Structures are given as structure tokens and as C-alpha cells.
Amino acid sequence: MSSGHGHSDGATVKERADLALNNDFLRKAVKFTTERLKGGKLKATEEHGNWEEWRERGKQIRLHTIAHLDYYLNLFVDNARANGVHVHFADTAEEAVHISLSIAERKQAKSVVKSKSMVTEELHLNHALESIGVEAVETDLGEYIIQLAGETPSHIIIPAIHKNRYQIADLLSEDAGEKLEPDTSILAGYVRRKLRAKFLEADIGMTGCNFAIAETGSMVLFENEGNARMVTTVPKTQITLMGMERIIPSWADLEVMATLLPRSATGQKLTVYMSGITGPRRSADADGPDEMHIIIVDNGRSLQLGDPEFQELLNCIRCGACLNACPVYRHIGGHAYGGTYSGPIGAVLTPSLQKNVAEWDDIANASSLCGACYEACPVKIPLHEMLIYLRRRKIESGHGDKVEAIGMKGFATVMSKSGRFKAALKLGKLGQKLVARNGEIRIKIGPLKGWNSVRVTPSLPKKSFRDQWGTMEAEIRNGLKEMDPDMKNRMEAIVKDRANGGGHGHG
Amino acid sequence: MKVSLFITCLSDAIYPRVGEAMVRLLANYGVKVEFPTVQTCCGQPAFNSGYWDEARATAKTILEAFEDCDFVISPSGSCTGMIHHYPKLFENDAIMYEKAVKLQSKSYEFTQFLVQVLGVTDVGATFPHKVTYHPSCHGSRLLGVKDEPLALMSKVKGLEFVPLPFAEDCCGFGGTFAVKMSEISGAMVSEKSDHVKETEAEVLVGLDMACLMNIAGNLRYRNEPVRVMHLAELLYEGVKQA
Amino acid sequence: MADTHQDWLIEMEAESRSKQTKFINSISEKLRRPMVTEPPRHPFRGSPDFWNDYELNEEERIERFTTNFKSVGGHVQRLSTMEEVQRFIADKASELSAKYVIRQNQPELDELGLEGALPGAQVSVWNSDPEQHWKARAAEADIGVVIADYAAAYTGSITVLSSKDKGRSVSLLPTVLMAIIPVERLKTRLGEIMVHFDEGGRDSLPAGIHFISGPSRSADIENDLTIGVHGPGVVYALIVG
User: Fold this and answer.
1) Which subunits have 3 or more CB–CB pairs within 8 Å of chain A?
2) Number of Cβ atoms within 10 Å of the Cβ of C79
3) Domain B130-241 maps to which CATH number in 3.40.630, 3.90.1570, 3.40.50, 3.30.70?
4) Fold topology of C55-216+227-240
5) Is ipTM > 0.95 here?
6) What is the pTM of this model?
7) DSSP-derived 3-state class of residue A299
8) For a Cys staple, A269 with which of A249, A250, A375, C155, CB 3.0–4.6 Å?
9) Smallest CA–CA distance from A226 into chain C, residue
10) Domain segments of chain C as ranges
């Protein structure tokens, strides 16, 4: 699978999004799934209660860990080594792939079974393994389906969100060499049998890592199907790919993450399986891997460290709640984002992980900045603000659109002096005479082309507010009532409190 | 106590009736609103698009306009929210930063001011219509204006409130987003109109004219006979009727 | 290139250690301060205080566990003695016509005497014979029987820890899982279980710690819930005592 596969055609987010908008099934499927997950999350968080306090705790734990990442990563590595794990470090995707392939070659591996891992998607590891003749099998049901289709995940939690059961039945029938009915239990039953055999014969099990516990050197996996347990129990060698920021200090902190992650992702109290793996099998154990490798991957993550505007990006626990909350994601689906990560987190993470911001920056425009992502985020990452920072950096680095830049200069010229603003309004009233009818403008040309293709624009009224103010003010002054003393006292108290450092400010 | 109106460029130019409703309503409580005419625009279009120098140039008119008042009130959660970004916008300019923090602490969205500062929920209005409400994203999520408009509407005589399905979903406006990503924006506003239609409400109210212009524009395009108005307008009309 | 696999691992370790210094140093540099080598104060460790005080009584724990476990498609049986457990498993095994049963090698399960109570099935005891291929034995089993190390009522979870006598496969590969939960091991919160892992420390931990909260599931095909995708599709929690 190459990076280009599975993405909708089209060079820009806008083009890909426009294609997705014309795919009715995709829109409906994505909408249905995200509504279901969003509803589940809402129900689960209300039932659990004190959600804001849990979010705040989750955020604080992540902030603390990232602020001391050098300490905790060292601690994790020391403990993991003491557990008998072979730890490796990779600055880049290429290095991580190189280490993975070296292990596979050393073990003379013929096949690798994988459980869902966004990091390995980021590295395009399956493709690399296949290039040296190692079969890489995705074992999460949804991942297996999209692997057969030669695509990439379009949702962080539900990778095959964009496929219907008929498409899936066709893919699996081709795989099986016989016709399978488009019935979920038949299709899942086939995959179970097929993958059982793959698990038992695989030389290597490959996983991602939801959390790594520094104090004990354990790695933790959340899943519902049991395939991640298979991958870490059956094959003789385990390779875990782990983003360098996956660390949490302790098991006590894991309780907080276990409270936040499943509820935010799917509305579950806990995923069916949560596994803490601490090293390879003990010598007397009769299952578990003989040899365990953990590859700690940077691949652009450290670019966020020490950057006050983006460091919080490393707090992400990959729950997908921002995708489910996002109205833009719901309309265009994951592939339109064009990177490994989609939705609001992808719109910020993809350009942030790449040094070449210019190549990816149009993703940051695919947001109305509504803040639903921030509200949904279990660790309170201000994604809606980061999107603005990304846009600003694009302009500052000179990659802005030239026409837009001229427009914004004009905007600033007019708006920096009220007299100019007033003059512009006057000009507007003159200009609109050509196009306004009955207080409305319906033409679909120039800047109004996109807007007016589904809307009607109101025209400017005869008098603006500032034109009317003089008369209005005189009328008000005449009819002004006496202020209630209680009201007056309240206002004075608020002003006084403000002087003492109080106030009602937000972030 | 000096209370100043931050009209916002959109209401100034296109919806002066919203500002009028606000100042006339407040006059009933003895609040004499001032209107400093040096104000223009909060700078949000430039800020959100990444043109911060341009945003600062316009933001300065707002900082200047409201330097000497005690309260700033605005008919927009989004433009009030923009004021909350001023400290970040001026983080490298100590003098302006201090002014920005001061302005932020005294800026209120209209219903926030009415309910939280004046302590008013019953303005004595009558409005015998079926009404639904779209909570704009910036006002509700970033400023936390959630209960105030509902409290105000609950006291209006004759008003039948119908909750808007998926009310918290963005209408698709997003400033330059509606132009740059017009197809996505169009899909979002169409969905919003579908939800408004589902409620069978006669009137859609909100606290942000930009979002309402977007939704109203689409409803009008589809010939849906729904009246769209700012809550201040509804309250003022209701008081006149009562 | 190294001659033996062991040599190669040693080479890789040397590489890793030299890389580690660079890797971690670069983190400290990016954070614009010297490397932190002493444990930093962590004022937000673990769950909020109000949560740590949350406790259900035994009946409430049983009820909560039962509701949660059933709501995700699991089965729960409250039994008073191990004799009843034996009878329950025997009845289920015969109802399901189980041919192969695998159980953990635990004294409580020895006493259960399943071997005698299940005449129609072959009962294997995990890792009791070094010649056996135990993963294959577990994979072919119709029923796996385990005794839970802990359980958490609030999330409806069973915790099993691996050891020489307690294979991870027993709770994973069979079609049906029967997990016996002695009632005194049923806690309210996950945190009451996790605290043992923090307190015991790295040395005390087994290779595998698994929290199991119902039957294996997936909603990957059109959001349609499928049970038993890879792990056991039928899970019984037998609360005893």
C-alpha cells in the first residue's frame, strides 16, 4: 500500500472534499457512524459524571508527562529493558522501517500479523514488509477489509467506515474464492476462520501502543476484537511501534486514560480488552512472545516539543472523538484529508508532523473553526486555535495566496479607520444598485459565486447603524428610565471585583 | 457606569435593527448605551485566515473605542470571542497586551450582560409564535453562553419553544471558510436548514448575525417561510407588543 | 553482520543505547532545559480524589458488575459454592456438547474436579506437560476455564494475570470463556486493581495483564455489532461466594 492509495483523487483538500460530497453513500455512512459514536460518547460521559473534572485531570497528566518527556522516556526504556524488551529508537519513518525490516529478516519471517496501529500506517510499513517478501496481515476486521481493498483507514477508530456490506462481501468473497453473502455474521465468521490460521502460522506479531507506562516499562493496548491479544500472545516475536509521546507515568494514571479513551472513542465504559504487556514471556510461561521489540518513533513529533502553540498536540490519545464531533469530517469523510490522520486532529497533526508545511497547509482551511473538536477532546487540545496558528504560519512563511493577501491588506486599510469604513459602506450602497433586487442579491459571479449557489445575500440597508445613531441616541436620552438600585450595585460590584483581579475572562 | 455598544461591522452595515433593539431594550432598565464611532471590525476575518498584522490594525480601533468604558456589549458571541483572542494577538506588545486583557475582562455578549450583569431574565415580552434557536459555536462553546438565551425565551409570554435537532452543529459559516470551502459550507448550511424545517418553527433566533445571515440566506434560497432574527430583536418586538 | 541471533541482539542493543542518548538529549534541548534525571513532582497523579473515595458495598458491586457485563452481551451467574460452580460448568459443557475443555493450573480449579464432572469432554490443564503444544490445545478448546485475579464492578471487567500456570491463551482462544470470580476479588473501581501493579512495581508484574469486559466484538461492518470476532464470543462470569 502506498501513501497515495485509498485517497480520493484530487490534488487539494477542496477537490477531494468536493468529490466526497458527491458520494452519497459515503456521506450517509460517515454521518450515521459518527452520530452513533457521538451519541454513545455523550451518554457514557453523562452517566459517568464529573466529565469536566476528568478531562482536566487527563489534560494535566498529559501536560506533565510531555513537559518531562526526557525523564519519563528514559525511565520507560530502562524498565522495559529490565523486563527483557529490546528497545530501539527511530528519528524518522525510514529508520523505523529499517529497524522493523532488520528484525523480520533476522527472524527469517514469512508473515507478520498486525493489530491496528496508526503509527505503522504513518510509516507505510505493510508496503515495506511486502517489498522484502514478508506477508503483512492486518487482523482488525475493519483494517483487514481495507487492506484487501488496497486502501487506507478513513477513521481512526472505524477504519472501514466508508464501505458498505455489499462492497465488503465482494472483497471477502474474492479473498475466500467463494461467494459470501452480505451478512455481517457470515462475513465476520469468515474473517475469524481465515485469520485464526494466520495467527497460528505467523512469525511476528506487530502492534501499536496506546500507552506506555514509564514506571514499570509496560505497554498497554485497548481493543474490542481480541486480535491485539492474539498478536501479542501467539507469534514468537512481537514488535511494537510506539510514538515517542505515548508515555504515562504510572498505572494510576492509566485509570484516568482508561476512563477517558473508551468513553470518548465509542461510548464504552472500557474496551472489551485492555492489556498491559510487561516484557516477553517469562521463561516458564507457555505462551507470549519469546522476543519482544519496542521501536520508539519520533517521525516529526519532536517538532512540537518546546513550541508553545503546538506542544499540546502531543497530548492526543487518538480516540477519534474530534472526528465524530466535526461537521466537516461528517460531510467529507477521512480520505479527503489526504493524510494518515483525518478529521480535526489530522488537519493539525498532518502538517505539524511534516516539516514542509506548505505542501499540506490547505488542510487547515477545511474547518469552520466551530470548536466542536475542542469540546469533544478528552484532553482538551485546542485544535480550533491550532488551525488558526497553522494558517498564520503559512502567511508568515510567505506561502499565502497572493489574491487573498491583497484582499486582506485592503480589509485592514478600510477597517483600521472608521472614516474609511463609512466611505466603503457608501460605496457599497452605490455598487449594489446594479445587483440588488428587493433587498436581496442573487447573482452567482465573483466572490459571491460559491456563497450564492445555495444562498441569497441581503443587500445593504439605506442607513447603517452609525448613520442612525444620532437620532436614536437623542430619543433614548429622552425616554431613559431610572436604573434599579440593585442593578446599579451589581454593576459596581462587578467593576470593583475586576479591579481586584476578578472578572469573567476566558482563555 | 459607562456601557458601550460594540455593534460589529456586520450589524452596523447590514443589520442596524439588531443594535437598535439592544439599545432600546437596555434603555428600559436605565442603561444609557454609548456608541464610540471609531470602532470598525474586530479583525476576525483576518485573524482566522492567518493575517495577524492586518487583524492587529483593525483590532486597534476596538481597543481604542472601548478603552474608557466599564462594560462592552455586543450582539455577537463570535466577535466578543475575538476580543478574547486579543491578548494572544498582542502577546509581543506589552502595552497593547495589557489593554487587551482589560478589554477582555469587560466584554460581554448581549444576553450574558442582560442575565449575568443586570440579572434580568423576564423583559416583559409577548411573542406568540413557534420559535427555535441555533446556538452559535463561538458564543456557546468559547464564551459558554448556553443557558442565558433559553432563560430569556422561557419568560416570553406566548412563545412556544421547539428545540432544534443537532442544534450544536455548526451552520457552516466560518467566515472565509464559506468562500474558500464553499461546497462543504453549502452542505453544512443545507443540513442546518433541514433541521430548522423539521421543527416547523415560524421563527429561528440566534445570537450571531453572521450565522443567521448564512442560515437565512439558505432558507430564503429554498423559499422556506421561516423568519430569522436576533434574540434581541425578538425581545424588543415582544416588549413593544406587550 | 553478527554471526548468531544473540550477537545481533547485542549489537542492536549497543546501537540503541548510543542512539538513546542522542534521542533523549534532543528532547531536553527542545524543551530548552537540562535533562531531567530526578523524578519530577507529579501533583495530578491518578484519578481525582472524589473518585478514589467512591466505593460500592458488596451487593452493589455484584449488581453493578452484572448489569454492565450483561449489557455488553456477557452472561453472569451468581453461585454460592464451588460445588455449584462445578455443576454449572458441567451443565453448560454438556448443553454445548463441549469436547475439549482447557483450564488454568490453579489449586481452586484442581479442587473443582472438572475432570470427573465432565465425562464427555477432555479436560486439559494448562502447561501441565512440557511436551504439549499448549497454544494449539487452547485454540481447539470449546471452553476455557479461568479464575479471575480481580474484577471491577464499575466497568464490568475481569482481570487475569499470566504465569506459568495461567496461560493468556486460556482466556483468549477457546470459543467459550468461563471466568470464576470469588466475590472478595470483586472491587468497585479499576484503580483498586491497578494500585497493586504500582505498589508491586516492575519486578512483580507478569508478562500479561488482561482486563476482559465481555465477549469479543466488532462494529466494523456497517456499524452492525458482531460478537466473537477473534476472542471468545460467549463469556460467563461466575461470581462465587
Assistant:
1) B, C
2) 18
3) 3.40.50
4) Rossmann fold (3.40.50)
5) yes
6) 0.94
7) coil
8) C155
9) C231
10) 55-216+227-240
